[in-house]
Design a protein that fits this description.
Layout: E1 2-7, H1 14-20, H2 26-33, H3 38-57, E2 67-68, E3 76-77, E4 84-90, E5 93-99, E6 103-109, H4 116-121, H5 124-132, H6 138-155, E7 168-170, E8 176-178, E9 186-191, E10 197-204
Antiparallel strand pairs: 1-5, 2-3, 4-5, 6-10, 7-8, 9-10
Helix pairs in contact: 2-3
Length: 205
């Protein structure tokens, strides 16, 4: 799997936004323009620019590429079934994961979080792992688990239709998942490329 990253803060500047949005296909440009906040418009544009780049690198014309974006299902290319992708964004950054098998990516800005969320929504073993960490490491531990879980939810194509407590991320080396969604195996990767952000990916083997 290949990971693409873009800092979208410059895209919040109106002149830059208006220049770069011309690079997007009409449907995605319309979607980006539809957001009320400049931050959200920039994130949508940034994700579109990353997708354009990945498509071109795969020999696919972004202008003519056709997507199946059926509500409730993961978007996919209708004529290129081996091109799998996943998009995520948080605060200033958008990321894109691309592979030849189903993939999922997630990025989250690390900030204080009430750990009761983990107790309420995570699998019991994950919460036990989290609370066994030194207190100073628990916030990072929470975001590691969260991004790993969300990347898996995206890789299987269900997103938040799959409850967080219906599968368990096991923080071994390598990281594993205990799940009953399907019979596939999955590989996880964590990225430490952006300070103050947690990034994870999941790819079907």
């Amino acid at each position: 799997m290949k990971l693409y990253t873009i800092n979208t803060e410059p895209l919040r500047i109106l002149d830059i936004f208006e220049t770069r949005i011309k690079e997007l296909p009409e449907v995605r440009a319309t979607k980006a323009r539809g957001y009320r906040l400049a931050k959200d418009r920039a994130l949508s544009l940034g994700a579109g620019l990353l997708l354009n780049q990945a498509l071109r690198e795969s020999g696919i014309d972004p202008v003519t590429a056709e997507f199946d974006a059926t509500e409730g299902k993961k978007p996919r290319l209708t004529k290129h079934p081996d091109f799998h992708f996943s998009i995520s964004h948080s605060e200033a950054f958008a990321i894109l994961g691309v592979g030849d098998a189903p993939v999922g990516v997630d990025i989250e800005k690390i900030s204080p979080v009430p750990l009761d969320i983990a107790r309420q929504y995570f699998f019991k073993g994950e919460y036990t792992y989290l609370m066994a960490l030194p207190e100073a490491q628990r916030t990072l531990g929470f975001y590691r688990l969260w991004t790993l879980k969300e990347s898996f939810m995206k890789a299987v194509g269900l997103g938040f239709q799959l409850p967080l407590n219906q599968f368990e991320i096991i923080m071994t080396a390598p990281i594993q998942v205990k799940q009953q969604v399907n019979r596939h195996d999955y590989a996880f990767t964590e990225y430490q490329t952006l300070p103050d952000y947690c990034i994870s990916s999941c790819e079907q083997l």
